[in-house]
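User: Hey, quick favor. My workstation is busy. Could you predict this chain's structure for me?
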Amino acid sequence: MKRAIIRIQFDLEAKRALDDLCERRGMTQIAVTSRLMKWFVLQDEAIQTAVLGGLSEPSMATLAKHILEKIAKDGKA
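Assistant: No problem, here it is.
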C-alpha cells in the first residue's frame, strides 16, 4: 500500500493529550492520527463542519438532535 507523509502542528496541550492517549491505548502517534484522519474524511459535511468548529451553538444542538434521531431510527450515525 502506498502511503503519504504529512506534518501536523499541535499546541503543547494537544500534544500532551495525544501523548497520554497513545500511552493509554498502546498506539503510536502515527497510528492514532492516521485512524482519526481516515474517520474524519469519511464523515459527511455536517459532521466535518461541526468537528472543525464551524457551527453556532444552536446549529450544533440541531445537528446533535438529528444524529441521535438517526441513530435511534436505523442504528447508524
